[in-house]
User: What shape does this take?
Amino acid sequence: RAAAYGGLSRCRGKAGVADVLDVLKRDVPELRNVAAQLVADLPGAHATLVFAGGLSSLPPATKALVIDALVERGQGAAVPALLAALADQNASVRCAALRGLARLGGTSAVLPLARAAAAATADSAGAEQRLARTALRRLAAPGVDQVMELFVSEEPGPVRAELIRALGPRQAKH
Assistant: This one.
C-alpha cells in the first residue's frame, strides 16, 4: 500500500503534492514515513511552498519529520516555516527547526536564533540552546556576519552575548 501510494503521488504532479499534505495532516501511521520521504523527493518549488505552508497544521511528530524533509530539499523557501516552528509548543519540532536553520538559514534567521539561544530553558535540557548556538555559527549566507554585528549594538544583554559568542568562531574562519 505504501509503495503504491508513493508511486501514485509522484505521477500526479501538483495534485500529488496536495495528496501528500492531506495524508500528513491525517497522520496515517502506515503512510507517515512514506509521505515524509515524498516531501523530500517531489520536485519543484511549488511543492516546497505547499509543504512549508501546511507545516503548522500537522501533528507534532509529523511536523518534525516534515521539517527534516524540507531541509533535505535544500530550498530557502522553507525558511519562513522553520522560523515559525521555533515557537512551536513541542520541543522536538523546535529542535528540528533549529537544525534546519543551521543548514538553510540566512540573515533573517540571525535574530530568532540568537533569541532562541538566549531564551533556552532548563526544560529543554540545554539541547535547544546548543542547537541554536550551532546554527548561529553555521549560517553561511552572505551578510550574516554584518547582521550579527548590527544586532550586537542593538539587542539587550543575553541576546547580545549569544551574538558575540557566535561571532568569535565565525570571524576566526575568515
Notes: The two ends are 52 Å apart (CA to CA). The mean pLDDT is 89.
